[in-house]
Amino acid sequence: MPIDPERAIGADLGEESFSWTASDVLLYHLALGAGGNPVDERELRYTYERDLRVLPTFATVAANARTDEPPAVSFPGVEIALDKVVHGTQAVTVHRPVPPEGKAVARTRIVDVLDKGTAAVIMNETVVTEPDGGPLWTSRSSIFARGEGGFGGRRGSSERIALPDRDPDSVVDIPTLPQQALLYRLCGDRNPLHADPEFARAAGFDAPILHGLCTYGIVAKAVTDTMLDADVTRVESFSARFAGIVVPGETLRVRVWRDGERLLVTASVPERGGAPVLADAVLTTT
């Protein structure tokens, strides 16, 4: 089914009520690799309910944390096979610290559909509030659908973040686990691209790849730990463009530059000659 931007842009994707518990948060943090040093007090903030703090990127999984079906890319004016889709960008802004457990209402709409010629980009915005309307977080994301362009839509522009012409303030290497994607999929993303070797090969990859949102969360945690002393309450927003894949077991090299209230971030894979993974990434602090 070809994309129909007139139907898609502005489409209201409905309202969803959901809840989460401390167990959902703990699983999410463990799926990002938290707790590698189980006696470190900073790591226990992520992995022990006694003084549990919530990494703001949990917002990307909170509504679907208990989903056990593969996702579907089926919206008004948009119908795309799952094996053609990869994550394009992700941004989360929290309006207050995310509580370890709670109830919320999410309202999502399609804000734009771009025609990149050989691919389409579908951009969504989700506003999440407490049931009484109190603001929790806002997320914006885009998906990149290979082979779905050419429908005559607007191409759009590309925003790039200029990095300082100096050495980064921090460089940290984060190893991923060979089973990282199998852990992360328990947070609600059962796309077989991250578990099924045959499905991954059919989609053009040599092996299952790590979820982009897992990489996103790992990098956000690394920046929070190294630059903010693991104080998740200081994170206001984190945005990034997905620039490449990670194979579970590879290393993420995270570079960070201070820029006022912003932390500018890149992530790459040194085992593949520094292949970029996250680009144009910005973490803002309160």
UniProtKB/TrEMBL annotation:
Annotated MaoC-like domain residues: 164-262
Entry-linked Pfam families: MaoC_dehydratas, MFE-2_hydrat-2_N
Domain called Peroxisomal multifunctional enzyme type 2-like N-terminal: residue spans: 18-147
Lineage: superkingdom: Bacteria
Family the UniProt entry places it in: Belongs to the enoyl-CoA hydratase/isomerase family.
Protein name (Swiss-Prot/TrEMBL): MaoC/PaaZ C-terminal domain-containing protein
The species this protein was found in: Amycolatopsis pigmentata
